[in-house]
Amino acid sequence: MSLWESGDSTGKISLSDLFSGQVFEPFECSMELEQLAFLVCRGGWPQATFLEGDIALDQARDYYEAIYKIDIHRVDKVRRSSERTRLLLRSYARNTGTATSFSKMCKDIKANDNATITYETISDYVDALKKLFVLEDMPAWNPNLRSKTAIQSSDTRYFIDPSIATSALSLGPKDLMNDLKTFGLYFESMAVRDLRIYADSLGGDLYHFRDSSGLECDAVLHLRNGEYALIEIKLGGKENIDKGAESLKTLANKIDTGKMKAPAFLMVLTGVGQYAYRRPDGVFVVPIGSLKG
Q1: What are the residues whose beta carbons fall under 8 Å from the beta carbon of 289, sequence distance 6 or more?
Q2: What is this structure's pTM?
């Protein structure tokens, strides 16, 4: 479930309204960093949304254990190794939000767990975990650009829900609060989860963009009618928001609008922030606790 579906977002800002050209007056937002950390670790599991505290967190941990102990053996009637599945889930958790290759995951597993696993094994297990709706990588977006910069085509690694990643690494809300860099990675995963749900409700898809110059866009919400929005995801902070907005504007200016539409809007989606507002340059700044489809 998204934060809107679980009742953790006010839904004051609608992506559908933004696509239709509507704007909004600035308004205050109330989600605190501690609450956000809890929501990342709790996940969007329906039963967990009715629970509080550690009992709610136990739902994700129990599901994570069921994946590698039970569920992995039920796919294609092939019996796979629980231990290899556990090691792979941990590696995926360490590489969430990156375009890490399976070959690098093999090295990561060996470096962190002193175990050997082959490229072919990882590929097979990833396919099985995707069939179980545990993993859902994000494909690359390939727009028409004015420049000749090469566009990276590798998928970005994500779980279906960030709580699987935090459970795999035994991270709780306090751990995220003490490591804001890691917190930012798993907040991005939660934001991608919600944006996918909202994109589906709008009849669209979600992509990422990355080119050889290092220019990136965390999420491109592309509708079937050809309209799209460029979205950067930041935990919070004025400096990060400014960087996100500049990156969005740089990408928007590279798009060849003679061959495709200009973006419907640019948005920095934040974890926390006192206000939702539109910047003087037109970029929307929207805390996730105020968003819906």
Answers
A1: 3, 8, 9, 10, 29, 30, 31, 36
A2: 0.93
- Asked whether 39 and 190 are in contact (CB, 8 A), the reply is yes
Number of domains in the chain: 1
Q: pLDDT (tens digit, 9 = 90+) per residue, 158-208?
A: 999 999 999 999 999 999 999 999 999 999 999 999 999 999 999 999 999
Neighbours of 161 (CB within 10 A): 23
Element (H, E) at 243: helix 238-254
Spatial CA neighbour of 90 closest among 58, 55, 129: 129
The token duo for 272 is 């926390």
Cβ contact 229:19 at 8 Å = yes
Tell whether 176 is covered by a domain: yes
Residue 4 lies in a domain: no
Per-residue pLDDT tens digits for 195-224: 999 999 999 999 999 988 889 999 999 999
Task: Record the tokens describing residue 40, joined without a space.
Answer: 């990342």
Q: How far apart are CA 265 and CA 197, in angstroms?
A: 19
Span 82-133, pLDDT tens digits: 999 999 999 999 999 999 999 998 888 888 777 778 889 999 999 999 999 9
Around Cβ 77, how many Cβ atoms within 10 Å?
6
* C-beta of residue 151 within 8 angstroms of C-beta of residue 99: no
Question: What is the extent of the structural domain holding 129?
Answer: 13-292
Neighbour order of strands in the sheet with 265-270: 27-28, 275-278, 284-287, 265-270, 228-234, 216-223, 204-210
Dihedral-angle region of residue 118 (phi above 0 means left; psi in -120 to 50 means alpha; beta otherwise): beta
Half-sphere exposure of 107 (CA within 13 A, CB side): 4
How far is Cα 293 from Cα 11, in angstroms, rounded to an integer?
Answer: 8
Would 2 be classed as within a structural domain?
Answer: no
